[in-house]
Amino acid sequence: MDAYGIPEDYWGELVEEAARELKEAARAYPNKEKVLFHLYKAFEKAGKHITVLIGFYRFYFYQSDMLQSIYWGRLCMEETAKKLRINENWMELTEEQIEMLKSADNPLVDLYLRAFHAVAYLLGRVGNIEESLKMLQLLTRIDVKSQIGASRLASILKGEDNQ
Predict the structure, then answer these.
(1) Alpha carbon of 57 to those of 3, 53, 99, 140, 144: distances in Å?
(2) DSSP label at residue 15
(3) pTM to 2 decimals?
């Protein structure tokens, strides 16, 4: 299991040095410079390992740095897409890949869809409504059980939500 409780066999074991740096980053909070120092050290050791990417995403999200959060969220999507053997660019997903995402039930697909939703949400927050809505439209097709809430977020962005 990785630091987030997901079996490592989904994206590979995190090297010990990187895991240590992530723990140091957590201990360094709220000192932003030290946190970033340790996150980048983890990145040096493990590259685009999903656990490191999530660490960066969370750091920037909680710092309210939406643009950096989008950057790291997109990297999470791309790396997860590689593991799922689907197109890294969400706009190039094939119908077959969309159907696989609809029917698959594993933590890697869940992570991909949640990262997808997070990036769409953040794009809406920074005013890129058009791309956000395109992402949410596709996500609504994939999330047929409405577990992620893409259609509700799309309604809010369109100004149609009355709740």
Answers:
(1) 14, 6, 27, 23, 26
(2) P
(3) 0.88
Pure H helices in 32-158:
32-46, 50-62, 66-84, 95-103, 107-125, 129-142, 150-158
Q: Please, which pLDDT band fits residue 157 given cuts at 50, 70 and 90?
A: confident
User: Which of 64, 66, 42, 62 has the alpha carbon at shortest distance from 52?
Assistant: 42
Cα 92–Cα 53–Cα 96 angle in degrees, nearest 5:
25
- Helices 107-125 + 50-62 axis angle, to 10: 30
- Mean pLDDT, range 75-82, rounded to an integer: 96
Angle at 93 between CA 90 and CA 99, to 5 degrees: 120
